[in-house]
Amino acid sequence: MAGKFRFENIIGASEGLKSVLEKVEKIAIRDTSVLVTGESGTGKELIAQAIHYNSPRKEKRFVAINCGALPETILEGELFGYKKGAFTGAKENRAGLLEAADGGTLFLDEVGNLPMNVQKTLLRFLQEQEFLRLGDTKPTKVDVRVLSATNSDLKFAVKNGSFREDLYYRLNVVNIHLPPLRERRGDIPLLAAHFICLQNTKFGTKVKGLDSEAMAAITQYDWPGNIREVKNVIEASMAMASDEYLTLQVLAQFIEMPAEISAYFGEEPVEGDYSAAMARFEADYLKGLLARRSWNVEAAARDAGMNMATMYRKMKKYSLKKE
Ligand SMILES: Nc1ncnc2c1ncn2[C@@H]1O[C@H](COP(=O)(O)OP(=O)(O)OP(=O)(O)O)[C@@H](O)[C@H]1O
Ligand SMILES: [Mg+2]
């Protein structure tokens, strides 16, 4: 649909993710710097890409660099490029990533790891839109939008002096925070279904979903590695077994299941098609959450990453009542 924002590769229906996407939609078209924060594996790079591909810069490149992966001098050369003879080994002129991203977007991943020296040069670039290639005396001008991401507490880094405050404000004009998956558990079944689909295509398998026990387990599990961990666990499980439904027994090889889960959920196999299985699971899942919260609807809705109205609607749909 022309003119509409498209996030078809970003899965989730929780309030937490919805408000992130609303923000992405608003700021994508504004040419500001955005700092994406969140735990490892929550989708920071995916969101940075969504900003780029929904912006007027989308025809130009999205260039990503991990600021923590390279030694300082190499990082500088990569970012800013160099002139022939700038250092031993600089056999010819080389353009850096800033030039590669001209007209597009530069994504600074793990920006908290930027060495002080590079922070200084980057700040100057953000202020003047120009920089010096290493060994050069003539500035190079480019038009680049800078997005960055961190899973560390940059504010704390500013306080303890390892990150420049002025650079922090330049990068963090807008902040987008991705909540950890355990705070938007409602997204877990959707993500699992999504990764099963992707993996079916890759492996040529026909896995339909998870059995109810496995489904219950994955929504209770805390997923410290967040969405990346879901992806890995589904892939690993499907490499081990490609029965119609993934079982808890298979999944348990890859994640540490809380003990109470199998106790609450029975052993009966799931019957009916996928949507019936999902509905059955959802009813069980919400009932479990409500019970855990002593039927405090607000608290259970929060756990599920749903708003109260949705929770009430679903309680009615599945006739969930305190027994
Ligand atoms: N909402 C989502 N829908 C579908 N896939 C997602 C979603 N969020 C993240 N992913 C996938 O999960 C994986 C991890 O996401 P990503 O690399 O963006 O995380 P990250 O926050 O940058 O992690 P890290 O801090 O470890 O670099 C990727 O394969 C990404 O495509
Ligand atoms: Mg990342």
Key features of this structure:
binds magnesium ion, about 325 residues, two-stranded antiparallel sheet, 5-stranded parallel sheet, about 10% strand, 9 strands, binds adenosine-5'-triphosphate, elongated, alpha/beta
Beta-strand proportion: 5-15%
Number of helices: 15
Small-molecule binders here are: adenosine-5'-triphosphate, magnesium ion
pLDDT < 50 stretches = 260-268
Radius of gyration equals 23 Å
H/E element order: HEHEHHEHEEEHHEHEHHEHHHHH
How far is the N terminus from the C terminus? 47 Å
Could you provide a short overview of the structure?
The chain has 323 residues and is α/β, with parallel strands linked by helices. It is built from 15 helices and 9 strands.
What does the model show?
The chain is α/β, with parallel strands linked by helices and 323 residues long. Helix content is 46%, strand content 11%. Strands 2-3-6-1-7 form a five-stranded parallel beta sheet. The chain has a two-stranded antiparallel sheet with strand order 4-5. A two-stranded parallel ribbon has the order 8-9. Bound molecules: adenosine-5'-triphosphate and magnesium ion (MG). The site of adenosine-5'-triphosphate has 16 residues, from helix 2 and helix 10.
